[in-house]
Amino acid sequence: MRFVRSLILACALFACTIAALAQATTTSVSIFMPNRTFGLGEQHVYVIDRSQTINVRYRNQEGDVVTKSIKRDDSHSVALTVEGYAVDGAAILAIAADSPPSAKQAGPSPAVGADGSVQANGSLGQLGVTSMILRNLPRAPLLDGTKWNGGGVLGLPFGVLNLRVVNSAAAWAQDPTVLQVISAGTIDAKGSVAIGGLGKTDFHGGGTCNGASFIDQQNALVMGSTFNVASRGNLSRAGDNVGTYTLTGSYTLKLARYIAGRTPPPSGAPSNAPGFMNGAPLDSDVIRQGAGNPIASPAPTDNIFSGASPFSTSTPLPEQSLAPVPVPVSSGAPLASPPAPPPTPFPTITPR
What we know:
Blueprint: H1 2-24, E1 28-30, E2 43-59, E3 65-85, E4 91-97, H2 100-104, E5 117-119, H3 131-134, E6 147-156, E7 159-171, E8 178-195, E9 199-216, E10 221-237, E11 240-259
Antiparallel strand pairs: 1-5, 2-3, 2-11, 3-4, 6-7, 7-8, 8-9, 9-10, 10-11
């Protein structure tokens, strides 16, 4: 009996440990502006270009100094559709990616928080560069000359970088509805790279970063962002330093497609259904002059469903033209197809 109790306790502790580890690995990224309104069926397609070069220097078994340069580039895309709303009115996103492995990591449909953050499980974590701009936004409206601190995780082919930046907003002369944000700061680099003749090696160090981003103030969206990073530090294997490295990298994100979506239903509680003989305006008598009969006046129409019929198929809105911001992406980048919007519109008032 004592053995069984010990076994049950050990299993419970193991389950708690696994749960704690799972919660520790869950992070969020700030993809949208705070308190943004989302339309039903709203769609976004983001294109991502990444490039990273690492130069390593180490001594081989013969004691000779060896230098090597390794470069890796990739392009992919992430798409999302607003498929519904949570009980508190938060938008729920359906996620798709350009490659099957990324799509399998998308996980369940996440909800957008009031601060614009989304759980960064799977493909959405690839949009983390927006956190550099949108995290810790000042409460006052963004205007020319506004400054604030930001930060987040930037994923590159060889590893992740933790960025801490100072952002400065400036009016963009080409379009008054677009705000330009200049970022500069420092990074902590960490990752691993396979080096011929040395094997898989970890790198860690520090460096600097700078970036430029563009915010569509009318639609409250980041239209494009590009960051350049540089770092240097140590190479290690099995905990022992074996050499040094220098690193350069770039990350570009661009909103390639945007469809606004339908206006969401109100979040207020529905009113009681109307009665048959009360609350109706009086009709004037069309035969003779005089007051109408209050008993004979018609009751109001049943307005439980106002707007489009809940049984009709919703028509997608047309794609919106975006300002041509100077954030170039490769023409051959794959484009993910966003999930289809809901087949029917939501009723504006839900019966009880």
